[in-house]
Hints:
Elements: H1 8-13, H2 25-38, H3 43-63, H4 82-89, H5 100-120, H6 128-157
Amino acid sequence: VVNFSHSFMDMFLGVIPGSIGETSTLAILFGALILIFTGVGSLRIMLSVIIGGVFMGGLLNIVGANAFMDVPFYYHLVMGGFAFGAVYMATDPVTASQTNTGKLIYGFLIGLMAVLIRVLNPAYPEGMMLAILLMNVFAPLIDHYVVEANIKRRLKRMKPVKA
């Protein structure tokens, strides 16, 4: 087995082997800015995917039971299709959550699950697409509960009408 050692900067710039379009995180960030400024991509989803990935990567670093868990948490952001999925796939306006709070929950869980699948399942080395597909199934449910919680919160604020 050949051991390829790539630095963080090599992965960030995209000078590593990989699929076209997903190796250069720098180019993906440029594309993210275009999507955000044109209003096509959701900044809430993008940032919450990153926060979820960093959270799970850091949690697994603390556990550190095997070599996969010892990968620094920030490496997960530039490895594989994580950045590509966070910017271009998770922000799909049709299948993603529609409420603002729902977007935060949806994105956080995608980032969390992507790193979890990548680290804990050696048979499936890249978990971003699977995490996005699973969360797309639950996006309407997330929105439903966010709207229900908002309705309950507003009803509590209403004063009873005296006749």
